[in-house]
Amino acid sequence: MERLEVRELVYFTAVAEELHFGRAAARLEMTQPPLSRAIQQLERRLGVALLERGSRRVALTEAGAVLLRESRTVLDAASAAARRTRRASRADPRLVLVIKPGGDGGLLPAILDAYQAEPGALPVELVCSFGEREILLREGRADAALLHRPHPDLTGLDTQDLLAETQLLVVPSSHRLAGRTRVCLNDLAGETLPRWPGAPGGGSHGPEVHDLGQLLHLIALRRMVAVLPSSIRDQLRDDLVAVPVDDAEPTTLVLAWPEHATSPALAAFVRAAAAVAGEATGHGG
Amino acid sequence: MERLEVRELVYFTAVAEELHFGRAAARLEMTQPPLSRAIQQLERRLGVALLERGSRRVALTEAGAVLLRESRTVLDAASAAARRTRRASRADPRLVLVIKPGGDGGLLPAILDAYQAEPGALPVELVCSFGEREILLREGRADAALLHRPHPDLTGLDTQDLLAETQLLVVPSSHRLAGRTRVCLNDLAGETLPRWPGAPGGGSHGPEVHDLGQLLHLIALRRMVAVLPSSIRDQLRDDLVAVPVDDAEPTTLVLAWPEHATSPALAAFVRAAAAVAGEATGHGG
DNA sequence: TGCGGCGATACCGTGCGGGTATGGAAAGAC
DNA sequence: GTCTTTCCATACCCGCACGGTATCGCCGCA
Asked: Is residue B262 less than 8 Å (CB to CB) from chain A?
């Protein structure tokens, strides 16, 4: 069985994405002829036609589309491998946890305390990021992340549910819905909703928002409204009001980490988080 | 960022598994010096020590252990990529479904019929295999598999539940438990249970069993007993008896396929299977 | 102190990955 | 129709990196 090399996959994805040998070569900072030959050789070794060369356009074959998708997973795995290896060799081991600012459901302090009490606990480094936080896990840049389900893509990750939350509509005090005791999603017709960086802008084409302070500021300025998990209630400014949304699907705060992870530090962290979450839901409701 | 090459990962896994450069080189069908240099270069490029060379033994460092695990996933992904690409280019497209003989819960004929009625259905090729059936999915050798949950490792696979089944103890008619109307797991103390190839022989160190006929034969010969999903009831020989096991965790027949799969033929098959399963549980209970 | 095992080093050849120059086919422009 | 442009393939060349052989150096051991 012929072996597939990373270099070939990099070349192929470039061509498959550009559908143009010249541009792909430029992107790869090389010239076009060796690129053409590399792709030909790849096709010969696989015994498969990957591209249809029309004299004026290049198109993917069925098999080429499959290889494009597969290549991405291989390349992602390869760069994650490099990053995780490097991180494992650091002199100051630490657990990198990526969160959305304000998106911890109020559980984080208790979780961190519980974790530090575990034997062999590492210092925890918090990384704040909006949108695409799971990417950091897949890329091997972080050990764990706090996400909200339903979430676009949790495949390849293991998860632990922490907290089920209802959702609140956040509006300025002067907003037409501010006085309501409850609203439903239909009431939001015509409102501008924020667009998270990286999220496929499904319908809501409001401005991109990069952190919670910015978002609340924009809401106060009447530029938009937002539907957020109920735990942000503590962090609202005085000039904003939160109203329960009846028919918004409830959201679950989950702790996620790359599957196959074996680090005992991570395992301890997951244990700690699960314990804290169990207490919270068991006692407090 | 330096790129990690497949060749290097192959070399490294060989050394990491053998913990011996000479043997690793032999396994790779090359000589020892270039292998040593390749590993050194890998370490230099990563900036990480992967191996501790004692003059008489080689050991993995912490980072080396991480890279070994990561390498396996990269290499698996790479060979799966090659196989899936080749399969996608076949002139006679077909859907490869891997099953455990007798493990289809009786649903398979209906599923196949429903699938063939879907638009764009492909011929279905059935592959029978005991143990490690999910490996065939990960390797890109099959499109879908029928498995039973709880299952050792479903990560990296998407699944669709098909049928919840209670478990039955299968024994010869002359067995001491054959007359019971129900048993519990404690009753099985001292009995020999089959060991599936590939499964970590957890406690039960009986003989390895490779197909259902063989298993039933061995049970009839009083060499072992087995706990199996209730749908095998139809396939029992006259000289065997099935007794419900009260406290065995119920098992779920699931259809599994590689995550990120995009083939419309597979999607149609999943739809068909889900429809049949819905009917079965909806009407029949 | 000689021996054997094993990884590292020195040195060498060749094949492959990359470059430049050019060919050749197809799609407009007129 | 033919001239031009565009873009992929081919021809040919070069340097290096990969793999091989020979050997060293270190250490455990008898």
From this structure: yes
